[in-house]
Amino acid sequence: MIRSRTVILAIFVLLAMIFSIVTASCFDSNHNRVTGQVLNVEQSSVTIISSLTLEDDSGKQWTFEGGGVFSGFTPAHLLEHRSRGESVTVEYQEIGSGILRIVHLAD
């Protein structure tokens, strides 16, 4: 009885590890990140960003679309970052035709 529980637990742990590795590799391969200063924020509602423009350390400007969903920050929070000169990190996915869609935002 104890041996069968040990085997079941070992299989469960192994499957959990495999699932974690596969999930992490899929997540990392589909999303990119850039960090920069907020230049412009357009909003479609109080909580939804319709577009965001950043400038990275090299001076390149990046424009992202919000995708119509809450991405972790409100437009007002991003405007605070702009006024204070604080950087934000955008995790994004390129969805074709050069469109960069925000997946997640972080301080």
How many E strands?
5
What about the largest sheet?
5 strands, antiparallel
Question: How many discrete domains?
Answer: 2
The CATH superfamily of the largest domain appears as Nucleic acid-binding proteins
**What Rg do the Cα atoms give?**
20 Å
| N-to-C SSE string, H for helix and E for strand | HEEEHEE
DSSP strand content: 35-45%
Strand order of the largest sheet: 3-2-1-4-5
Number of helices: 2
CATH fold node name of the largest domain: OB fold (Dihydrolipoamide Acetyltransferase, E2P)
Query: At the first level of CATH, what is the class of the largest domain?
Result: Mainly Beta
- How much helical structure, as a percent, in the residues? 25-40%
Query: Could you tell me how far the N terminus lies from the C terminus, measured between alpha carbons in angstroms?
Result: 51 Å
Q: Give the low-confidence spans.
A: 19-28
Shape-level CATH architecture of the largest domain: Beta Barrel
Describe the structure.
It contains two helices and five strands; from the N terminus they run αβββαββ. The protein has 107 residues and is an alpha+beta fold. The chain folds into two domains: 1-30; 32-106, Nucleic acid-binding proteins (OB fold (Dihydrolipoamide Acetyltransferase, E2P), Beta Barrel), CATH 2.40.50.140. It has a five-stranded antiparallel β-sheet. A hairpin with a 5-residue loop joins strand 4 (87-94) and strand 5. The longest helix has 29 residues, at 2-30. It starts with a helix and ends with a strand.
